[in-house]
Amino acid sequence: MSGFIRKRLIDDNAALVQLLGLCPLLAVSNSVVNALGLAIATVFTLVLTNALVSAIKPIISKEIRISLFVLIIASVVTALEMFMNAYFHELYLILGIFIPLIVTNCIIMARAESFASKNTIWLAIKDGFFTGLGFALVLVVIGAIREILGNGSLFNQAHLLFGEFGKVIQWQIFEDYHGFLIAILPPGAFFVLAILIAIKNKVSK
């Protein structure tokens, strides 16, 4: 693994190290499908906004760059929201406000300002993809742990994201499982995130 990729996936992971984007990370990660849906949306937004910011950097002035970055991010997220509403409507309804809130995700603005605006389009795309992937992995792992503990299942309601194939991969791990309620409530997200951060810090040392 190259240093560029390792830094974004592990050493400077947006969720576990920089602690950015915690609002959607904690709120939506109560199942794998919800987490994966938001993760894909976030990666797509990061890649596209990084590419656009890098492409226009020679023609914008420093005074208006932040406003323009916000406009680009908002435009990308709006297009993404309309796409999800059209093709993944049920998942769109479940994710709700957290799709438009991608606009305010600190990760996206941070990468646009600190990296994309200073590097080539290709490097900006790589940065967006691997930064988003690092965030997505944490999001999906938290979703998996919370779903298993909370409902005793994995990939429940996967048809919302994968269609008919989703019904094949749904897995009820524990039969007659009454659930561990706190795992799928907001405090459960904090507990799982704290454990992941502790494990990451231990491994890094």
Count of the domains = 1
User: Quick one: biggest sheet?
Assistant: 2 strands, antiparallel
Intertermini distance:
18 Å
Radius of gyration, CA atoms, in whole angstroms: 18 Å
The strand line-up of the biggest sheet is: 1-2
Q: Residue share in helices?
A: 55-70%
Helix/strand order, N-terminal first: HHHHHHHEHHEHH
The total strand number stands at 2
Shape: globular
**Strand residues, percent:** under 5%
* Unreliable segments of 5+ consecutive residues: none
Annotation field: number of helices? 11
Mean pLDDT: 88
Q: Which structural class is indicated by helix and strand composition?
A: mainly alpha
Characterise this structure:
- By secondary structure, the chain is mostly helical.
- The protein has helices spanning 3-11, 22-27, 32-56, 65-87, 89-95, 106-114, 121-151, 159-162, 164-169, 181-184, 186-204; strands spanning 153-154, 171-172.
- The chain has one domain (30-204).
- It is built from 11 helices and 2 strands, in the order αααααααβααβαα.
- It has a two-stranded antiparallel sheet.
- Helix 4 packs across helix 5 and helix 4 crosses helix 6.
- It is globular and about 60 Å long.
- The two termini are 18 Å apart.
